[in-house]
Amino acid sequence: MDELFADRPDPQPVVATRTTYAGLVWDVHRDRVDLGAAGIVERDLIAHPGAVAVLAIDDDDRIALVQQYRHPIGWRSWEIPAGLRDVADEPLLDCARRELAEEADLIAADFSVLIDYFTTPGFTSEAIRIFLARGLTQVPQEERHTRTAEEAGMPLRWVALDEAHAAVLAGRLHNPHTVIAVLSAHALRADGWRGLRPLDTPWLR
After folding, report:
1. What local confidence, expressed as pLDDT, does residue 2 receive?
2. How far apart, in whole angstroms, are the C-alpha atoms of residue 61 and residue 204?
3. Interatomic CA distance for residues 189 and 198, integer angstroms
4. What is the pTM of this model?
5. Is 126 a catalytic residue?
6. Residue ranges of the chain whose pLDDT lies below 70
7. Distance, first Cα to last Cα, the chain
8. Is the dihedral of CA 146, 79, 90, 46 positive or negative?
9. Catalytic residue among 99, 102, 103, 151
10. Out of 29, 53, 175, 179, which residue is the most buried by the measure of CB atoms under 10 Å away?
């Protein structure tokens, strides 16, 4: 039988490393990496804690999108709820539940793994797990998170999955985890959601 067609981990030896920049969220490391016959090379990388995102879909096949200002690009971007893994030892699912509640005031009864990916593996270790969330209810008003900074006044919009899919293909949505989630969910829904993965699926990290 042929080997399963898949990416595979194969970390090469790091013979030296130093932190060249320590930031608020991520650090920049300079590694000397032994590539065997190709020699030793120096590479800068952004060491990132990883993140989760949630495509929340209701009984009418509408997905929850929030609009957030993104300073590095100067755009207001429609996105699925997402956030950093910035709570020590927090399980991925708990992080997803927290972000869904904090950003969209939603609780989900059912979660599945939609897709995992590396955002830009050429220079950062950032990996994102995207969950599909169903069985949605509202967070009680008195328990809602107080949003600040870029999230203050952040609007929420319910958009039909088909409409979001068309917007992605037309180049009207650009946030990467939203684009990936919408394309994946649209394809999986057409197959009766059979490709959804269980919550114990090993993560990239």
Report:
1. 62
2. 29
3. 16
4. 0.93
5. no
6. 1-2
7. 28
8. negative
9. 151
10. 53
